[in-house]
Design brief:
The chain has helices at residues 13-42, 53-65, 84-98, 115-123, 126-137, 143-164, 167-184, 188-201, 209-215, 221-242, 244-251, 269-276, 280-298, 304-316, 318-321, 331-344, 346-365, 371-393, 409-412, and strands at residues 264-265, 324-325. It is mostly helical and 417 residues long.
């Protein structure tokens, strides 16, 4: 019997971490290089490209670093996440304050020196995101194929989040994927706690909760619900109690910027704005939260991969229900869809990654509100989900072996941490 190649041997968790660190570091270095050199080299202009969104995170982090945790939502408008991202950013803010560096808020600067600390610190969030993805897909691919695909995932999932300055979305995505892996392994407590961290990082992760609850045994569902929701409620309780006006505005009724210079204005913005005005985002996000339990109930008796595909579909709804859409909004849905595609087989994986790449690049380059843009996005999303869903929907065949839908059995034995 021929010996197996080392590249086909099961990968250790340490190996998964090493590859994730290496690929995450390269992706971060490329984003930082683009930030420093694109304007002077391409446009012959003085300055760096730094997303203003990163300063939305650093200002609440300064309140945390200074001991004013309860008042972090009064730092500046635009910070709508739970306090966990600000807590994690606080050490970087303390460091650049100690070194007397300057940020990009309240005045925009051509070269905010704090970016030298904040940028690399924020990009560390890519490492757990890549690790969670690699561990969830490692059972279906050889080590070389996993590494190549992980590089592609870094390009279409990680880079947009880093480019827009949203490490909290990467953290939420990482722990959502960890939760999926623990769910497949029937580790219900671990799955609930992973999802709890994801929700504390970014509230959109709550759409994973119905899928976790309907998948858990009947006697464990209340416990899973409490474990997954209690940390977020505890984190929100302090600022809500201490500074209700600012905290409630940010956490419960976030205002929407209806006119922006970048991003994609939704075709349903007139409807949303007529219903809720500057709180139009609340309506869209409420619809997504309602869609999650409906999808979970519909697929509750289906195979795990079908449930994962349904979760990806709910996450992809965000691009249609948000008043203004940015490229990093696509990252969670794309990451989960690629997991499903990997379990489906190489042919499906190639199609889904190709469609995902087109979708993300399009979202990065285009802006404004045009009918043809949204028509193209709809076509891409349908094609992307259909590529993964075709194999998911096929009935399992006894002779399919380790290919086709038989690969979905690996989702039940997914390795985590």
């Amino acid at each position: 019997m021929a010996s197996r190649s080392p590249l086909d041997q099961p990968e250790s968790n340490a190996g998964a971490w090493l590859w994730s660190i290496a690929i995450g570091a390269v992706a971060g270095a490329l984003v930082m290089a683009y930030s420093f050199w694109w304007m002077p080299w391409v446009h012959a202009q003085h300055g760096w490209i730094v997303s203003n969104d990163i300063w939305i995170l650093t200002e609440p982090a300064r309140y945390v670093a200074d001991g004013a945790f309860g008042y972090l939502y009064s730092a500046r408008n635009g910070y709508y996440s739970l306090p966990l991202p600000a807590l994690l950013m606080a050490p970087a803010v303390r460091l650049y304050d100690r070194w007397q560096m300057v940020g990009g808020y309240p005045r925009t600067l051509p070269k905010p020196t704090a970016w030298l600390v904040v940028g690399p610190w924020a990009m560390l969030a890519a490492i757990p995101a890549l690790h969670a993805w690699r561990r969830l897909t490692a059972t279906a691919l050889g080590r070389l194929a996993t590494t190549v695909l992980q590089v592609m995932v870094a390009a279409v999932v990680v880079v947009p989040c880093e480019f827009w300055g949203h490490p909290e979305d990467l953290l939420a995505m990482a722990f959502l994927l960890y939760s999926l892996g623990a769910t497949g392994a029937r580790r219900w407590d671990a799955a609930a706690w992973f999802l709890a961290v994801a929700v504390c990082a970014k509230q959109w992760s709550i759409v994973g909760l119905p899928f976790l609850i309907v998948g858990a045994p009947a006697g464990r569902r209340l416990r899973v619900l409490l474990e997954a929701s209690a940390p977020a409620l505890a984190l929100a309780a302090v600022p809500l109690a201490v500074d209700w006006p600012d905290a409630s505005r940010s956490l419960l009724f976030p205002p929407t910027a209806l006119h922006v210079g970048s991003g994609h204005t939704s075709l349903i913005l007139p409807l949303l704005s007529s219903l809720a005005g500057h709180h139009a985002s609340v309506v869209g996000r409420a619809l997504e939260v309602v869609a999650a339990p409906v999808a979970a109930l519909v697929v509750r008796h289906r195979p795990p991969a079908t449930q994962t595909l349904a979760l990806a579909g709910v996450l992809m709804l965000r691009m249609f229900l948000e008043p203004v859409v940015f490229a990093y909004y696509l990252a969670p849905g794309v990451a989960v869809l690629i997991v499903v595609a990997v379990k489906a087989g190489p042919a499906v994986t190639r199609r889904v990654v190709a469609w995902a790449g087109v979708l993300v690049v399009w979202a990065l380059l285009q802006s404004g509100r045009t009918g043809w843009w949204w028509a193209g996005i709809a076509v891409i999303v349908v094609a992307l989900t259909a590529s993964a869903g075709y194999t998911v929907s096929r009935p399992p065949a006894a002779d399919r072996g380790a290919t086709g839908s038989g690969r979905f059995a690996g989702l039940d034995r997914a390795a985590v941490l």
